[in-house]
């Protein structure tokens, strides 16, 4: 466990909390609820597809981890992070307050930083990761 990794995870939790806590009155928004539902569905699919214990909150890969490239991972390399972004953005849209927007937007660079740290670890642990990364987008199918 490394201090930078812990700091990135703490920042992720802080931004996520800021994004979803209703600071004033929560006002359901159909588009926000749809996005939150999509994020929750992607998160559920990813968690059910991934072997329990194969993932961790820190961006370093477990020694006993295995590389998964099918299911939601055939669409994007980081479906868990993508689902967190979509879920938090949807809930922030329902909250409609500036702290929620700040939290949702802050998640983007935090998760990009976390992804970069994790991918260093993945490349060391799995020689096949480079080929997988060249053929699969990080967050949005067809884009970076």
How would you describe what is shown here?
The protein has one domain. It is 62% helix and 0% strand. The mean pLDDT is 91.
Indicate the structural class.
Answer: mainly alpha
Question: Over the alpha carbons, how many angstroms does the gyration radius reach?
Answer: 16 Å
State the helix count: 5
**Strand-and-helix sequence, N→C?**
HHHHH
Largest sheet, in brief, is: none
Gap from first CA to last CA: 28 Å
Mean pLDDT: 91
Summarize the structure.
The protein has 144 residues and is mostly helical. The protein has helices at 3-20, 30-49, 79-95, 98-125, 129-135. It has one domain (3-135).
Keywords:
0% strand, 5 helices, mainly alpha, 144 residues
Walk me through the topology.
Layout: H1 3-20, H2 30-49, H3 79-95, H4 98-125, H5 129-135
Helix pairs in contact: 1-4, 2-3, 3-4
């Amino acid at each position: 466990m490394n201090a930078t990794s812990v700091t990135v995870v703490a920042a992720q939790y802080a931004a996520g909390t800021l994004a979803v806590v209703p600071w004033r009155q929560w006002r359901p928004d159909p588009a926000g609820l749809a996005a939150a539902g999509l994020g929750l569905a992607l998160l559920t699919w990813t968690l059910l597809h991934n072997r329990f214990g194969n993932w961790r909150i820190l961006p370093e890969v477990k020694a006993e981890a295995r590389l998964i490239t099918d299911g939601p991972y055939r669409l994007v390399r980081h479906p868990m992070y993508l689902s967190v972004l979509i879920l938090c953005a949807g809930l922030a849209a329902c909250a409609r307050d500036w702290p929620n927007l700040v939290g949702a937007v802050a998640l983007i660079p935090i998760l990009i930083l976390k992804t970069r740290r994790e991918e260093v670890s993945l490349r060391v642990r799995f020689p096949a990761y480079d080929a997988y990364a060249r053929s699969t987008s990080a967050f949005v199918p067809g884009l970076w």
